[in-house]
Amino acid sequence: MNEITYDSIYSDRKLAITLLYKKDERPIVISLPYASLMTFLKCFHEAKLAANHMTRYSQCLFQLYAFGDNMLTWPSYLENKISPNNLIKIKLFCRDTKEQNLYQNWSKRYPQIVEVLTIDQLEQDLIISGLKLIENLRFEIEENGILNLLEEDFHRLRHALIGSFDTSIAIANHDIQMSEEAN
Fold it and tell me: What is residue 59's three-state secondary structure?
């Protein structure tokens, strides 16, 4: 996560993607081989800082990826709604499918929480969200220099997604092969 460096070409836009992950007493390893390409992602290590940032940029709509344990410390829950109002979509991520089931049940009362991912699903989902963000920004931005930078980011992310899919396929094939050999 420390390899993610936010690029200012994504600031002051109509839509933004943020990430909340604070290591706790049970730290986990989150493998993001393509983290350095996720320059569209604004990262926070404290829930309060993320919420304050969203409140300060009230003209922007935010999509938040949050580690499930960290979301439990979010500063304000009002009438089964997580504020601020411009936080339109939340995707939680967690350690494994056991936690995924727990968070899916917990999240049902909050309409902004649209999905609960395991850490194994996180990277591909982040890349896809980045590609969609860039697609949307192409219609918002008129400056050729920034459009060229966005096009470069889009191209790199597209190749990263292919690489990530290739890795997932290789892992699945290896698991199948190992189970066949075990039988």
Answer: coil
pLDDT at residue 168 greater than cutoff 90: no
The position carrying tokens 């339109």 is 88
Q: How does pLDDT run across 48-74, given as a tens digit for each residue? A: 889 899 999 999 999 999 998 888 878
For 53, 122, 139, 176, the CA distances from 57, given in Å and listed in that order, are 6, 25, 20, 48
Burial class (CB in 10 A: 0-12, 13-18, 19+), 148: exposed
**DSSP per-residue codes, 97-128:** HHHHHHHHHHHTT-TTEEEEEEHHHHHHHHHH
Sign of the Cα pseudo-torsion (150, 151, 155, 156, in order): negative
Question: What pTM was computed for the model?
Answer: 0.89
The answer to whether 68 and 116 are in contact (CB under 8 A) is yes
CB burial of 58-84 (b: ≥16 within 10 Å; e: otherwise) equals eeebbbbbbbbbbbeebeeeeeeebbb
Spatial distance between the Cα atoms of 157 and 153, rounded to a whole number of angstroms:
6
pLDDT at 39 over 90: yes
Q: What is the pLDDT of residues 5-34, one digit of tens each?
A: 999 999 889 999 999 987 665 667 788 999
Q: Where are the alpha helices (DSSP H) in 29-143?
A: 47-56, 68-71, 97-107, 119-140
